[in-house]
Amino acid sequence: RMAISPGRDAAFSSQKSALSESPRTKKFPLTEEELFYMNCRAAYLTVFKSSLENIISKEQLYLALQHAGRNPSQKTINKYWTPQTA
Questions:
Q1: In this predicted model, what pLDDT tens digit does every residue of 30-71 receive, in sequence order?
Q2: DSSP letter (8 states) at residue 51
Q3: Domain assignment of residue 69, given as a range
Q4: Count of beta carbons in the 10 Å neighbourhood of residue 81
Q5: Can you count the helices (H) and strands (E) in the chain?
Q6: Could you tell me if 32 and 61 are in contact, meaning their C-beta atoms sit under 8 angstroms apart?
Q7: Domain count for the chain
C-alpha cells in the first residue's frame, strides 16, 4: 500500500500532542526525519482529503510526488507502480 497507515497517523498525532503539551522537552529544530515525514504528509494532503485515502493511479502518485518537491520521470513512476501495485 502506498498510503500512510492509520498506525503512522496515530504515532504522528501522539507525537504532535506531546510537542504541544511540553514544547521545552523537545529539542528544536526538528530532526531531518521528522521534517521529511511532515513534508511528505503535507504533500499527500494537498492531493487527498485524508491521509487514510490510498493512491489508486500512477497519476495520483506523480501528483503527490510533485507536491513533495520531486519531479519523477515516467521510468521512475513505472518502477514503483506496477500491475501488482495495490
A1: 888 888 888 888 888 888 888 788 888 899 889 888 888 889
A2: T
A3: 32-80
A4: 17
A5: 4, 0
A6: no
A7: 1
Q: 73, 15, 36: which is closest to 44 by C-alpha?
A: 36
Whether 46 maps to a domain, the answer reads yes
Core vs surface per residue 45-73: b (16+ CB within 10 A) or e: eebbeebeeebeeeebbbbbbebbeeeee
Residue 65 covered by a domain: yes
- Asked whether the bond before 83 is cis by omega within 30 degrees of 0, the reply is no
- Give the separation between CA 36 and CA 42, rounded to whole angstroms: 10
Q: Are 65 and 72 in contact (CB under 8 A)?
A: yes
